[in-house]
Design brief:
115 residues; mainly beta; seven-stranded mixed β-sheet; four-stranded antiparallel β-sheet; 11 strands
């Protein structure tokens, strides 16, 4: 059974940084495209950043230049480095693993940006 375990969320002041981690288990990590999504109260879940199995990345316009997604296939981990955080980045952040005929989600980790 595939499980995605996120970590690294928390509370931070505006302008601060956090790094989220996601470590899938029960599958071959390297074949998946990995993504981070977020959902704020009253809003739909949205894509934040995506990294393909060969390392190509895509970011939402709202986080370009501030967030960086990366993957370590040797350690089966995907990261989301978040810098210059803003109050509007406050949300529940979800890790996603996707390939043909398979799509998995983590339970989410809360990120709160507030002064």
């Amino acid at each position: 059974q595939v499980q995605l375990v996120e970590s690294g969320g928390g509370s931070v002041q505006p302008g601060g940084s956090l790094r989220l981690s996601c470590a899938p288990s029960g599958t071959i990590f390297s074949v998946y495209a990995m993504g981070w999504y977020r959902q704020a109260p009253g809003r739909q879940r949205e894509l934040v950043a995506l990294i393909t199995n060969d390392g190509n990345t895509h970011y939402a316009d709202s986080v370009k230049g501030r967030f960086t997604i990366s993957r370590d296939n040797a350690n089966n981990t995907v990261y989301l480095q978040m810098n210059s955080l803003k109050p509007e980045d406050t949300a529940l952040y979800y890790c996603n693993a996707k390939k043909v005929a398979a799509n998995y989600w983590g339970q989410g980790t809360q990120v709160t940006v507030s002064s």
